[in-house]
Specification:
By secondary structure, the chain is of the alpha+beta class. It has a single domain, classed as Beta Polymerase, domain 2 (2-Layer Sandwich), CATH 3.30.460.10. α2 packs across α4, α8 packs antiparallel against α9 and α9 packs antiparallel against α10. The chain is globular, with a radius of gyration of 21 Å.
Length: 353
């Protein structure tokens, strides 16, 4: 059994082994600058072509805003599937359309139409209809574009998400993006390497590693991870090293998830008045744009929520052990703990040699 070592806050420097590995690793999982420029160009082409198809079909596309992890600069161009590294990036492309006849506003009908547009425009590109989008898969570039039909609302700043069960939810793509970007800008103003959005990337990767283990949880929404990271950042900001930042964040999030503390934000006035939020009744993490939207998975019960909390508790303990062993100069154990948290890829692609 490994002997427990005492930890002292602030004992690590930016030359520490774990910080350098995490910094190199996050550079490997994020999109490269030239890749981002190519994605912007291709996304613009897809918006233009699909909008043309929709217009010819009688739909009025009022906006095609930037959205999702790519727009927020929190996306991964690689992720884990089981024990394998998978290269590829998902880009959300919302198409906000003017409401039409009642049947035409159903998500199933809109998805059928957008699937037709995708097939007509890109006949040699595989596509798949999901619960809320049509996914275009560009195999050669390993890029997936999710065409997401939404309805325009009376206010151009807001959109209406259509659910498979027929329900509707008012949201704001731009405000969601700004919610994340604002915190990234705040962390950019601080001296040092550690940035909010890069910590979000690391927790998204960590999520895939946890899902790949023997876990009853098969999916964790990206928005849930982002909001939990925002909660940790708002309370704790960032430290000079990724190691100490994540140690503190995991400690806070272990408390939040373990006690099922409600999470909410005051960045914006809620689009809809606060009421019994749709979603999981056992724990609430509220959409910062619409407080009536609880982003916790509706199908999660006590077993899943307990499992999710255990992930953060294990992460907290692992980071505390890591800091103690790093302070003691136990490099091999530091590497073992990093691999426990992020999988073996961090030892290969978080290379510090």
């Amino acid at each position: 059994m490994t002997q427990a070592l005492a930890t002292t806050p602030g004992t690590l420097t930016t030359r520490s082994r774990s910080h350098r590995r995490l910094a190199a690793f996050v550079d490997w999982i994020k999109a490269e600058r030239d890749t981002r420029e190519a994605i912007h160009k291709q996304a613009a082409d897809i918006r233009r072509i699909i909008t043309g198809q929709a217009t010819a079909d009688g739909l009025v596309v009022t906006a095609t805003p930037e959205a999702g992890s790519f727009a927020k600069h929190t996306g991964l161009r690689r992720h884990m599937r089981g024990n394998s590294e998978i290269e590829g990036q998902d880009v959300d492309l919302p198409f906000v359309v003017k409401p039409t006849a009642k049947d035409g506003d159903r998500i199933g009908e809109l998805l059928r139409r957008f699937d037709t547009y995708a097939g007509n425009s890109y006949p040699n590109t595989p596509s798949e209809v999901t619960a809320s989008s049509v996914e275009l898969r560009f195999v050669a570039s390993k890029l997936n574009y999710d065409l997401v039909p939404m309805l325009a609302s009376a206010n151009p700043d807001y959109q209406i998400i259509l659910k498979k069960d027929g329900s509707r939810r008012v949201t704001s793509v731009a405000k969601h993006t700004e919610f994340i970007r604002r915190r990234t800008r705040q962390s950019d103003e601080r001296a040092g390497r550690v940035k909010f959005n890069e910590c979000v990337r690391l927790l998204k990767w960590w999520r895939f590693v946890r899902i790949g283990s023997t876990s009853p949880i098969e999916e964790v929404r990206t928005m849930l991870i982002e909001l939990l990271c925002a909660s940790a950042y708002d309370r704790l900001s960032v430290e000079p090293t990724y190691t100490e930042t994540l140690a503190k964040w995991f400690g806070w999030l272990a408390t939040v998830t373990g006690r099922r503390l409600p999470v909410s934000f005051n960045d914006y006035p809620s689009i809809e008045p606060l009421k019994d939020a749709a979603g999981n009744r056992l724990w609430q993490v509220l959409d910062p744009v619409n407080a009536s939207n609880n982003v916790v998975h509706t199908q999660w019960g006590n077993i899943e929520l307990g499992e999710f909390a255990s992930w953060f508790a294990a992460g907290r303990d692992a980071f505390n052990r890591l800091i103690a062993h790093e302070s003691a100069g136990n490099d091999g154990t530091v590497d073992d703990i990093l691999a426990e948290l992020f999988g073996d890829p961090i030892l290969i692609h978080g290379d510090i040699a």
